[in-house]
Amino acid sequence: MTTLDSDPTAMPGANIVGTGVGSGAGPGADVMAASSLDGNKVFSADGEPIGKIVDIMLDVRSGQVAYAVLSNGGVFGIGDTLHALPWSVLTLDTDDKCFILHVPAERLRSAPGFDKDHWPSMADLQWSTAVHAYYDRTPYWNATQDPAQTQTRTQKPAPDSAF
After folding, report:
1. Could you tell me if 9 and 137 are in contact, meaning their C-beta atoms sit under 8 angstroms apart?
2. From CA 131, how far away is CA 21, in angstroms rounded?
3. What's the pLDDT score for residue 150?
4. Under DSSP, is residue 88 helix (H, G, I), strand (E, B) or coil?
5. Are the C-beta atoms of 149 and 64 separated by less than 8 Å?
6. Taking the alpha carbons of 95, 97, 103, 107 in that order, is the dihedral positive or negative?
7. Is 149 left (phi over 0), alpha (psi -120 to 50) or beta?
8. DSSP H or E segment with residue 82
9. Where are the domains of the chain?
10. 51 φ/ψ angles, rounded to the nearest 5 degrees
């Protein structure tokens, strides 16, 4: 497993490491199908296996990845605890085909979680801000440099907007 040289707390996206970065073969690691990342193992910053990615949540209005959902602690999907991880707290390791979470395993054990039948409202600004603060990350909606993407997260589209 690749070690991390830095901790990019203000990055809006996941960091990428490994020899597959920029190789030119296929679409590469910079643009990937979200489904190709489901099931990837996740290791803590101290190298402990801590679970796997089960979903990648998109902020439909901004077009950004909002969270990766980590499953850990259960057996065959029973008793799992789910955690919403800000996308920027992860590093994709293309060599080992896994993610590295920028926190020690013990910190994840204390993290707020939820179960598959009781998901939080991920669009709730208070909840989202608390999740990003727990992982010491700038919320993705504040990390963008594009003024067109800085609209209020709860703002509704104009009535004449077409889907």
Report:
1. yes
2. 29
3. 37
4. helix
5. yes
6. negative
7. alpha
8. strand 81-86
9. 15-138
10. 150, -160
- Alpha-carbon distance of 33 to 123, in angstroms, equals 23
Q: Around Cβ 62, how many Cβ atoms within 10 Å? A: 18
What contacts 124, CB < 8 A, 6 or more positions away? Answer: none
Please state, in angstroms and as integers, the Cα–Cα distance from residue 18 to each residue in 9, 94, 141, 155, following that order.
20, 5, 27, 39
Mean pLDDT of the 135-148 span: 74
Asked whether the whole model's pTM tops 0.85, one would answer: no
Fold of 15-138: SH3 type barrels. (2.30.30)
CB–CB of 38/53 below 8 Å? Answer: yes
As given in the structure block, the two tokens for residue 53 are: 């990615």
Q: How confident is the model over 33-90, as pLDDT tens digits?
A: 777 788 899 999 999 999 999 999 998 988 889 999 999 976 666 678 999 999 999 9
CB 84 within 8 A of CB 122: yes
Inter-residue contact 52 to 41 (CB < 8 Å): yes
Record the tokens describing residue 83, joined without a space. Answer: 């955690």
